[in-house]
Design goal:
Elements: E1 2-7, H1 15-29, E2 33-38, H2 66-74, E3 78-84, H3 92-99, H4 105-111, E4 114-120, H5 130-142, E5 146-153, H6 159-163, H7 167-176
Parallel strand pairs: 1-2, 1-3, 3-4, 4-5
Length: 178
């Protein structure tokens, strides 16, 4: 499988990157190719809502890095959404990328991609990930993707906190299981 990891953290070496790398290591060991895109460091503008794309009938009129990201997604078999939890949802940078999916909605939906969610949060309340899980499941359903799993890293506000938990192993195991 060709896997694209959309890493939404502005911190390239934080807890999210650590869990994404462990997932990627497992997936590579299972024989898959993995490309990580640090979307927070790409030139991706928010969707303008102009509907010039006709929701997939024409390319987006904006000229930024999103065209390249969409090409990689359309060449993939799986998309992994990796994000720290910011106010109980994904980062704005990752959300901007997902909002721009609309210009290739039909093509993405038609691929029946596999998907996974990797996320980390400082706090560890039982309800910490409820809103993000619901959002992820809605995206998967809307885009006719197949959910392959989630790693919900509670209590992982720093890389050292993350390393002391079970979540790197869970991410590695998820990648290896594909």
């Amino acid at each position: 499988m060709n896997i694209v990891v959309l890493q939404g953290s502005p911190n390239r070496n934080g807890s999210t990157a650590l869990v994404a790398e462990e997932f990627s290591r497992g997936a590579r060991e299972a024989g898959h190719t993995v490309e990580r895109i640090d979307v927070a460091h790409e030139d991706v503008r928010p969707c303008a809502g102009c509907v010039a794309c006709g929701y997939g009938a024409r390319p987006c009129v904006q000229r930024d890095a999103m065209a390249s990201i969409l090409d990689k997604i359309l060449g993939a078999d799986m998309v992994v959404f990796a994000t720290p939890l910011y106010y109980y949802d994904m980062t704005a940078q990752l959300k901007a990328v997902i909002d721009r999916f609309c210009s290739e909605n039909s093509a993405i939906t038609g691929k029946h991609l596999k998907a996974a969610l990797l996320t980390v949060a400082w706090n560890a309340d039982g309800w910490t990930f409820e809103a993000l899980e619901a959002h992820y499941r809605t995206i998967v359903r809307y885009l006719d993707m197949e959910d392959r799993g989630m790693v919900l890293g509670a209590g992982c506000g720093t890389p050292s906190m993350m390393r002391a938990t079970k979540y790197p192993l869970e991410a590695y195991s998820l990648g290896l299981s594909l």
